Recover the amino acids of this structure.
């Protein structure tokens, strides 16, 4: 037996960075550079600017075009794509509305506050990078306290009507409140964590940055057709978190797909020889329980059949795993995280995070970094016109991929990432 610790790259975050209850500070990029930790943000703005430059000298012989109705375009290169973009302003304002729970009063609030602090740490790393690129913006941070009434009070502030983009909040009801405000004032809203699957009324200003289970299930069905056409698909359910979310969505996505599929409930005495009655099989095991997964894997190995096994990326946290079994069963992991395989962007972000915080980024830190960088770069490249340009393209960051499409009256991130365990290491799988 080959026994080894988890092969997941460090995404645990700096556990020493608990929520700090400190006096409110005025934040600036210069101030953050001197702090070893990220403090609880208040609603005062973070401002970045270009180095001071003299105004260009105008040639008196050159007469500017004064045609009021003439639109000026310029060429923009963004992540390998070329665009013709209408001239736009170069200074932007972004509002971040998250449940920081300053002065938390319960264990649940404390846990939520720590996760949001990790997310905010990622934002601050992105701010450093944006400032280094000369991108000019004001960032306004608000504590929603995970309270709809607080969110409404924030949205009543006159300054919110003038921002170019809103990131947050996280609770579904609060996202819907903010989405209504965003539509009324024509301000794009990035929902960073919570996904609004369906809207009864169209809202082209709402962008879900996290892929929904529905989207991931639809992407998996297309991936299956391209890579496992003709094989039998077996879904093993146990009623857990991954099963209730992705598993339920996958069963619905399989309806009418033409894929030969079978759904079974997990059992310790499952008869795998009876189930595996074809030459080759794909099994999606929807349990995240180590004991259940190990029991099934051991039984599958005894059948000597060709198996491609898919499961949650939570399996990567299992300790004392027999990786020789995983190699033989062609184990694949369904995940949202590009950083699992240590791509160049994620490694660079990790280095920057370690320099700033002396620890490793968590998944929330990666999300804050990617989403803030995406927002800042979009505004810089496309200004207020960015919704026109983001659809139909794929933009990749350290731990996220953004492929935004208008689905069910708002924008969704059509994105699924699959990694495989091959030769005792993780490798990313191309889905197309």
């Amino acid at each position: 037996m080959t026994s080894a610790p988890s092969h997941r790259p460090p995404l645990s975050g700096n556990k020493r960075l608990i929520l700090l209850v400190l006096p409110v500070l005025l934040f600036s990029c210069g101030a953050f550079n001197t702090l070893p930790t990220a403090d609880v943000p208040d609603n005062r703005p973070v401002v970045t600017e270009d180095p001071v430059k003299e105004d260009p000298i105008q040639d008196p012989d050159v007469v500017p075009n004064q045609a009021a109705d003439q639109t000026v375009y310029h060429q923009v290169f963004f992540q390998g794509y070329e665009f013709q973009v209408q001239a736009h302003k170069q200074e932007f304002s972004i509002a971040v509305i998250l449940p920081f729970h300053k002065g938390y009063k319960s264990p649940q609030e404390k846990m939520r506050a720590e996760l949001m602090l990790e997310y905010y740490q990622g934002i601050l790393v992105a701010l450093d990078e944006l400032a280094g690129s000369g991108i000019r913006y004001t960032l306004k941070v608000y504590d929603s306290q995970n309270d709809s009434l607080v969110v409404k009070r924030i949205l009543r502030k006159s300054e919110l009507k003038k921002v170019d983009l809103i990131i947050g909040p996280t609770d579904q009801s609060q996202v819907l409140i903010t989405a209504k405000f965003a539509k009324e004032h024509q301000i794009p809203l990035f929902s960073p964590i919570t996904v609004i699957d369906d809207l009864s009324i169209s809202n082209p200003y709402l962008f879900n940055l996290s892929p929904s289970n529905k989207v991931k299930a639809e992407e998996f069905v297309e991936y299956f057709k391209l890579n496992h056409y003709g094989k039998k698909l077996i879904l093993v359910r146990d009623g857990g978190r991954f099963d209730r979310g992705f598993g339920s969505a996958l069963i619905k996505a399989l309806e009418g797909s033409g894929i030969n599929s079978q759904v079974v409930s997990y059992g310790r005495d499952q008869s795998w020889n009876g189930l595996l009655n074809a030459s080759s099989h794909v099994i999606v095991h929807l349990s995240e329980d180590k004991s259940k997964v190990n029991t099934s894997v051991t039984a599958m190995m005894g059948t000597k059949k060709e198996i491609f096994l898919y499961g949650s990326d939570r399996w990567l946290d299992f300790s004392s795993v027999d990786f020789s079994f995983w190699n033989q069963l062609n184990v694949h992991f369904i995940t949202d995280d590009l950083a699992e395989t240590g791509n160049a962007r994620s490694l660079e972000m990790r280095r920057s995070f370690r320099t700033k915080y002396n620890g490793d980024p968590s998944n929330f830190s990666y999300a804050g970094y990617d989403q803030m960088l995406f927002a800042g770069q979009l505004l810089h490249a496309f200004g207020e016109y960015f919704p026109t340009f983001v659809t139909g393209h794929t933009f990749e960051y350290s731990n996220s991929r953004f492929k935004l499409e208008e689905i069910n009256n708002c924008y969704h991130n059509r994105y699924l990432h699959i990694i495989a365990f091959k030769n005792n290491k993780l490798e990313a799988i191309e889905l197309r």
Remarks:
- Residues 1-36, 47-67 have pLDDT under 50 and may be disordered.
- Residues 29-50+85-210+343-414 form a domain with the Rossmann fold fold (CATH 3.40.50.2300).
